[in-house]
Amino acid sequence: MPDTLLKGLTLRGLEVFETLARTGSVAVTADQLGMSAPAVSQQLRNLSQALGAELVDHSRRPMVLTPAGRLFLGRAEAALQALRAGQRGLSMLDLADLSALSLGVIEDFENEVTPQLAADLADAMTQCAFRLVTGASHALHGQIARRDLDIAICAAGHPDPAGSLIHPLIDDPYILAVPTGVDVSGGLAALSGRTFLRRDPDQVMGQQIERYIAGAGLSLPQRFEMDSNQSISALVAGGTGWTITTPLSLLRAGRFAGGIDAHPLPGAPMSRRIVLYATDDWTGPIPAQIADRARDLIEDHFAAPGRARMPWLGDSFRVQRGAEAARGAPEPV
């Protein structure tokens, strides 16, 4: 890359551009980054001059990216993600003196996030008794409440486990999943002739979905009820019925994904929140650092691929970092 192109290309400029692409507003970008509005505008001008292309259409409200801006956004996000991951890696806490850690992780992550997270922790904990368990969110809630686990990554409960500290990771919005080619332009009424595939009501997802169905005034026959995400995905792909799921769950469909179409869920948006719970005696930096590493892995394996497959998800399926995560973190309960 020529030196003339690098002049004016700064990390702050990339952060401003990434945030503005998401918010569409100079004022909101300034507020989120702790800058003044003129400083945001100047960073955008410097970046456009460095690249020799206009990145943002300033004539529209909310602002939108130009074709050049859309092309550059993916590269900017990848660069920032790599830099942030590197920064967190350099500042990783030395866990050599930690004597014991019990970690639980939701089953949704067992093939991608959990193995890498476990490997990273094992590398950092040279003399630690490390216990890792996987399971459904409601089971992990109980283990945190009983102090059988120190930390758990799972869907937030209602209520949260008593005595827990909460680090938000990502909101996982509910979506409609139907066999490929099924017309849903008529809303849920268009699916009345097809079987609804229910989830186990003990699961957090099952409970939230049943509340949505009740709120929508739907009466759906009790024919299929399962606790297996893969079985539900297989039946949807095979044309047996339809379901309400989330992007995170849909992305685990594997070989069945090609037979499933995803659509926004009719009505008010609804999501399950994936969080890291830590018992309230873990008040030091370790839970926050594990949460940061989990966010990196969730973004790589789920959030970025999910937005690429379902661009209509937008910011509703993006990991929560920095001030955003801090604002969403409740006090201990």
Describe what this molecule looks like in 3D.
It is a single chain. The protein has twelve helices and twelve strands. It has a five-stranded mixed sheet, sandwiched between helices. A five-stranded mixed sheet has the order 9-8-10-7-11. A two-stranded antiparallel sheet has the order 1-2. Helix content is 42%, strand content 20%. With 333 residues, the protein is an alpha/beta fold. The longest helix has 24 residues. It folds into three domains: 88 residues, Winged helix-like DNA-binding domain superfamily/Winged helix DNA-binding domain (Arc Repressor Mutant, subunit A, Orthogonal Bundle), CATH 1.10.10; 129 residues, Periplasmic binding protein-like II (D-Maltodextrin-Binding Protein, domain 2, 3-Layer(aba) Sandwich), CATH 3.40.190; 90 residues, D-Maltodextrin-Binding Protein, domain 2 (3-Layer(aba) Sandwich). It is globular and about 60 Å long. The N terminus and C terminus are likely disordered.
Topology:
Layout: H1 3-6, H2 11-23, H3 26-33, H4 37-51, E1 56-57, E2 64-65, H5 67-90, E3 100-106, H6 113-124, E4 129-135, H7 137-145, E5 151-155, E6 164-173, E7 175-179, E8 195-199, H8 204-215, E9 224-226, H9 229-237, E10 241-245, H10 247-250, E11 260-264, E12 271-279, H11 286-309, H12 322-328
Helix pairs in contact: 2-3, 2-4, 2-5, 3-4, 6-11
Radius of gyration: 22 Å
Q: Give the tally of structural domains.
A: 3
The name of the CATH topology of the largest domain is D-Maltodextrin-Binding Protein, domain 2
| SS content category | alpha/beta
The number of strands is 12
Overall helicity: 40-55%
Spans where pLDDT lies below 50 across 5 or more residues: 1-5, 327-333
* Discrete helix count: 12
CATH-derived architecture of the largest domain: 3-Layer(aba) Sandwich
